[in-house]
Structure formats: C-alpha cells, structure tokens
Batch of 4 targets.
Target 1
Amino acid sequence: MYEKFLIANDGSEGGFRALTCALGLAHRLKAELHMICVEEVPRMPATIDEVVEDKLEENHRFEQVIAQAQFRARSAHVKLGTHVVAGHAVPSIIDFVERRGFDLLVVGYMGHSALYNRLIGSNTDRLVEFAPCHVLVVK
C-alpha cells in the first residue's frame, strides 16, 4: 500500500508525535521513511550578519531535531533519511513530495484557536489541501 513516507518535522511536539507514528507504520509496512525540516525564509534582514545569524540558529535547531529523530529511528529499527531545505514550509514540502514521489505525507497537528484557523489557517490544513499524495495528520 504505502512504500515511501515523508514526515514533516519542525521540531514541535506535534512534529515528534507524527514521527513516532510514522516510525511505527514504516516498521510494520517495511516502508522507506524520510524526514524533512524546512528552514523558514527569514524576514527581510537589514544586514548580511543577520542572515548569517539566522542561518546558524536554524542549523543548530535542526541538528538537534535530526539527532533526536535518528535516535528514535534506530531504536525502532527503521532507517531514516533526513533532509533540510530552505523556503516556506508548505510549498517546500509539496515540491519535495512531488519531486521524490512519496505516497504518504505524515504531519503533526498543532491546535490553534478557532479564530486563528478561520483568519490565518494552518500549514497542516494547506498540506492536506495541496499534497499530491495521501496525508496522515497525527493529533
């Protein structure tokens, strides 16, 4: 059924709940599992030093996310490919899914207020809407 999964993990609690679920499914189905972290495109920096500082912060943050994910994957006896891309979360993830031919995208749900969701929406909602494959939302 599913042979190639992608988990989107931003380092949040929801991202790690999704990782836990994806590891269990990948192990049971003997599926290939990859994880993507998206370095959000920063606000318009005033200087090149701000760009360098933002990049270093993101690299450090995702190093920890990747290390923890790899540890969990080894414990679950699952090989995990990791990818860090720069851009805006939704279009970057959708593009990655399309180019790499994933058949399942696993994302965490991060609850917001009804007003927030009505006015702004969420990345999860947009991924469900635009993904060219099945999407599993882990709550």
Note: The chain has a mean pLDDT of 86.
Target 2
Amino acid sequence: MERDWESVYISDKIHLVEIVRAVLEDNNIPSVAIDKRDSSYIGIGDIEVYVHPDNSILARLIIEQNKL
C-alpha cells in the first residue's frame, strides 16, 4: 500500500470490513484493510479499508449504494 491511499470505510467488526472489501473487489477496486485495534484489548479501536485516491470517490459511492 502506498502512503497516499485514502480511508473509505471504518468499522470495529472484521466481518463488515471483509464484506466491503469483497464488494469493492467485485467492482475491480483494489483495497487494503488495516487493523488498528489494540492488541491487548480487541474491543478497542477500528479496522479501516483503504483504496487508491483515484478510486476513492467510486468506492465511497459503491459502499453507500450497497448500504454497507
């Protein structure tokens, strides 16, 4: 992942993040999930989905249209 990728989705639930990533992948948008949860306390923190800036608007639109 390059430094300039943008966060398009944040959740504390891994299954929702994986659904978002699958939907983006179905639409040919590469994505990366970064787990920022505390390693000692899994309930603290979030998981973020990042995409390349060229795809960020389309990714947000797809996420919104699919009510994810």
Note: Residues 1-40 form one domain.
Target 3
Amino acid sequence: MSEMNQEPNEHQEETPIDVSFTESSGPSPIQTPSRKPKKDKKHTAFLTIVLAAVVGLGAGLGGSWFAITHLGASGSSTTVTYATESGGSKTTSVASGSTGLTETQVAAKAAPSVVEILTEVQSTSSSFFGQSQSYTSEAAGSGVIISSDGYIITNNHVIENATSIKVTTYDGTEYTATLVGTDSKSDIAVLKIDATDLTAATIGDSSKIAVGDSTVVIGNPLGTLGGTVTDGIISATSREIVLNNESMELIQTNATINSGNSGGGMFDGNGNLIGIVNAKDSGTTSSGTVIEGIGFAIPINKAMDVAKQLMENGKVTDRATLGVYLQEITQATQQYSAGLYITSVVSGSGAEKAGLKAYDKIVSADGKDISSYSDLTAVLNKKSIGDTIDLTIERSSKSMDITVTLTGAVETTKTSNTSSIG
C-alpha cells in the first residue's frame, strides 16, 4: 500500500505525530482468486508497498500443507511428532546440528504452530437515496501460536475492525478467538483461544540472522490454502519501509508471499520463528518493470516485545512519545509552506514542558530534515522514554532550536476519528 499524503485543508481533522498509522488498512473483502496474474494498472516511480493481508475464499479453511523434500542434514537428530490435516499424527527425524534442517524438517517442526484466521467486519454504506445499509464482509489471514495455552500473535491489520474472529489450528479444529490487545504502530496484535496443549512456535533471535540465510514462510494465502509452505533466503535484515505512513524496519525475503499470509510465520533454517509476515511489494516501476519476490516480516524480537506488553497491559507502555498532534501539509498554501505542523500539544507531555506550541513547523529532528510524519517516526522509533530529541522548528517565520525530553504515552481526553496521540 502506498503511503498516504493528506491534501492541505484548513478544516481537516488532525493527524497524530508519532506512534499510530494514520490510515487503517483493515481486511479486504474475501474474493475468489483469479487464475490469471492481475496486473497493476498504476505505474509510479516508486515501489508500491502493500499489506499482504486478508484476501481469500470464505469457506475453504481446511488447511492444506506441503513441504519441499531434500536429503537430510548432518548432525544429531530427534523425532518430532506433529498433527496432520486429517487429525492423525506423523513423525519425522529432525536434525539438531548447527548445519540446520531441511525444508521438510523445518515445515514439520513449524507448521503445527501456524493458524488460519477468519474475520467478519461490519460496515455501513449509503445508498443513492441517502439510506444507510449495514453489511458484513469476511477476510482471512494467518497467525502463530506463541504459547501452548492459546496465545496467538498476528498483524493488527488482519483483525482490525473485526466483529468476530475465528481461528483454525493445523489439525482443523476451529475456535472463537478473543482480542487481547493490538498496536497499530508495530502492526502487531495478540489473540487468545480457549485451548491447551497446543504446539507453540520456538521463538528465535532476529538479531542473529544474516543476508543469505535460508528461510521458510508458512501461512494461509488466499484464505483457502492454510499451512502453505514457501522457501527462500533473507534478502535484507533491516529494510526501512514506510507502511501507512509508519516507518518500520523489516526483514526482507524472496520467499513467496501472497494475500492471506499476513500474520503468518517466517522461520529460520532450524525451524525457529524469526519474523511475523506483514507486507509484500507489488506493482510496477515507471518503466513498466514488474516487481516480484519482495516480501517483508516484522523481526520477532520486536514483535514479541510488543506482544508481551499487550498480554500484560493490553497496550504498549514503553514507547517514547513527544505528546503532540500533527498535520502534514503536502503542498504550499497562502498561509503555510509544505511540511509537518503541530496542531495541539498534550498537557503534561515533554512537548509542553519544552515550550512547543500549536502551528510550530518541525523542520528537523536530531539533524535530520523532516517533511513528513514518517520522517519523524523514523527518528522517534530509535528513542526510549527519557531520551531527548533536538528539534529545529519555525514559529512566526523565525527558526528556533528546542530540546524535548521524551515521555511515555500521556493520557488525553482528545478524540478524533482519524487521529491518535503520539
């Protein structure tokens, strides 16, 4: 999904400064997948980043699974027993040496921890005669079990605005899930199902991955092919990508990712969970070059940090914020030049204590030029509570340098349909 730019409008609602997506990218309506490649009709100079969520057929959640077979790896081995799609069980020999596992062994170890997610979203539309009509749409995605007692990690955009959430495990059992917590900035959500003795993923360490390492992606492409396994390599370990106006550092892979894979697992060569799939790159360049083989996942170290806070507090509590609301102006007007403007300051925040005011234009942060919301979030993402940030602002056509001490989220009574506090 290409990043959103708001047109200048004196009456626009305010956009938050630093911690939330400015536009939700909730589940797409479930559709029958076409058998022919669908060409992107837009030709832009930039890659089109799209969330790899939530398109598929409504009913086919049986959970087919396959693995690519190779010769066994060297080293010691253990026997792994896992559930099959038919409700039975199967055993395989899984190598435990440092040389890694085969794709077959990775799939055998990891596939039982990946689930299919089906959501219902209630929407309202207006008819030609001005009458409102409510309708329900379905969408599908993926998730990964992170505890044997039923906690599941997925993407925020997979379950956003859902009125009901169904989870189907690898053995075909369907559960009604409850939402534990969600965080739009990191695109992470946690669900809970009433179950025990589930197969939880083995959590890896995304700080130890390297370009060229083998990787396996398991998910529910098209909403009908649950348990699908694709393989590839890690193409980049920390690619800065802007999704929905949020700057994120993601793992890049060439493993095949399709709509419905969002929330699924990216596993390393030993079957350890190293990422939560959340996006793919698609479309064409201005010259007509087709973009292929570019997918992204949230590093598991970041994802699990957020998940643990959601499980403990229902929200992220350790994120550094300025404590202001912003409006991004993309084109100069008679009153304002293009750039990022503060529209209000939260009482008790670091911004208020430092003397920031409404209508201040943020020109730079820690020496980096700022012209958009995502520019600022890229700087703030590297900060912790108690850190300082050096801002250069323009106020009444005069340049000023202000240092702000960042705080955690400050409670506010301000509400808006399109904004949240930063």
Note: The helical segments are 103-110, 156-159, 300-313, 350-354, 373-380.
Target 4
Amino acid sequence: MSVAAGYLHTIGLKLDGTVMAVGLNKQHQCDVSSWKDIAKIAAGSSHTIGLKSDGTVVAVGWNEYGQCNVSSWRDIVAVAAGCAHTLGLKSDGNVLAVGNNEYGQCEVSSWCDIQMPSD
C-alpha cells in the first residue's frame, strides 16, 4: 500500500491494486474508483496518475496543459506528478514528460540511464 498527496486531495493504493481518493474533486482528480491493477500512484495539484502493473499509465483530473495525456505510454516503471506536469520513467532508463513546460520542467527527452527509485 502507498499514499500520495495532491494540492487538495489524497490518494491511497490498496494491496489489491485498487485506488482510493478523498478531498476536493472539482477537476475529477478523485475519480479513481474504477482503476484496477495499479502498482504505483502519484498526485499532482489537481490530477492523479496510476501506473498499472503492465507498464501502462492512467490519469484523471485537471488536464489544461496535457498533464493527463499518458495513455500512449508503455514500459513505464515509475511515475511522478508535479503541479501541472507528469513524468514517467521507462524500463530502459529514459524519461517521458507531458504538461506545462513554462519553466522547462518537461525538457527531459535527453535524459537516459535514470535509475529506478527504491520503494
């Protein structure tokens, strides 16, 4: 089990791979009740990210900057969520990013050989 905190919402990953959420749901960031087979979670300001055990990623919530546009991601081993951007670490050590890039926070395309975080 694990937990993550967004700006005004909190999410929890249960041992059975389902996700719970409480808090402000104005942007639908708590709409995770249908998620299954989730291995890891992350919470941004108003979006929620789930890494499925098959290496794909799901997202709900505020998507003004495309921070929830992760449905095409494959072979992901870790996820992280910022205020309005989302990162995915691929199994080959490369990093993907979507969302607000106003300060260059998504400029990770040249990153490689990044290590998997320890749990």
Note: The chain has no helices and nine strands.
